[in-house]
Amino acid sequence: MAAQIPFPLVLAVIAIAGLSAGSINPMIDTILYALIPGDIRARTLGAMTATVTAGMPFGSVMAGYLGQSMPLPLAFAIIGGCYAGVFVLTGFGRHWRRFDESFRHATEV
Fold first, then answer.
1. Distances from the Cα of 19 to the Cαs of 13, 14, 16, 23, 25, in angstroms?
2. Angle at CA 21, nearest 5°, toward 17 and 26?
3. What does the pLDDT look like over 47-80, one tens digit per residue?
4. Are 76 and 1 spatial neighbours (Cβ–Cβ below 8 Å)?
5. Residue among 66, 101, 104, 70 nearest 82 (CA)
């Protein structure tokens, strides 16, 4: 949308992204159930859900502010850049180095 491409192409990209995200979420849930010990699973997943849900209004307020205070394509570009930055940053960090070992150990138990 920030590039002001034709609307049918935007809809196609959004549809593909939605279908891709829909198949990723059950995989993430499966991994979380395998990695989080059973005695703290409910508290951990509850805290994660509460944190994500609490952050949703902040995103809506920021999107409304950006959409009102600047041209819409620029606002879309900023929001898209933030999403891309967060996605790229998840690839860095210590927790990913031992992820495969932790998952293998969790599934053997």
1. 10, 9, 5, 7, 11
2. 165
3. 999 999 999 899 889 888 988 999 988 888 888 8
4. yes
5. 66
